[in-house]
Design brief:
Helix content is 44%, strand content 13%. By secondary structure, it is an alpha/beta fold. It has a single domain, classed as Rossmann fold (3-Layer(aba) Sandwich), CATH 3.40.50. The chain has a 4-stranded parallel β-sheet, with helices on both faces. Helix 1 links the parallel strand 1 and strand 2. It starts with a strand and ends with a helix. It comes from Candidatus Criblamydia sequanensis CRIB-18. Its EC number is 3.1.3.48.
Length: 162
């Protein structure tokens, strides 16, 4: 089973939405061998549900965000196969936890899998309005679909031509 961890700043907007979007897309694509979770670099919101505005915007798209915020722990570098950062600031913070090249190789910018937003930062919508939350969801949906496509491509290579 592959395990993925989505990471943003406080784990109440971007990363819990990415976690749920990835889960929904994995289920839709019959990819059952994945575990997804999320965390925040900071510990300000540990135990809280995702931001109400993000939950509402996500629910309007059929995504129900119910995970509780947790802070990133160094041990996650051992327990997850892939760690996906919402932006380059989070990416650099994650690299500070990684002591080895193997640990660093697990850490990626989430949009590196996006066909449309490749390499862009997913902006923190916390101080914005509904359009900011919608943009973040657009970016997350595209990036997570790119991630699904990447895994499906990996599986087809492993299984050989059909």
């Amino acid at each position: 089973m592959k395990s993925l961890l989505f990471v943003c700043l406080g784990n109440i907007c971007r990363s819990p939405a990415a976690e749920e979007i990835f889960r929904a897309l994995a289920a839709k694509n019959n990819l059952t061998d994945f575990k997804a979770a999320s965390a925040g670099i900071g510990d300000w919101y540990v135990g809280h549900l995702p931001d109400d505005r993000m939950r509402e915007a996500a629910q309007d798209r059929g995504h129900f965000l119910a995970s509780r915020a947790q802070a990133f722990k160094k041990e996650f570098l051992d327990s997850y196969d892939l760690i996906l950062a919402a932006d380059t600031e989070v990416l650099h913070d994650l690299y500070k936890f990684a002591d080895t090249p193997q640990m660093k190789s697990k850490i990626h910018l989430l949009t590196s899998f996006s066909p449309i937003y490749r390499g862009e930062n997913i902006p923190d919508p916390f101080y914005g309005g509904r359009k900011d939350f919608d943009l973040v969801l657009d970016m997350l949906e595209d990036s997570c679909q790119g991630l699904i496509d990447y895994f499906k491509n990996q599986n087809s290579k492993k299984n050989g031509p059909s």
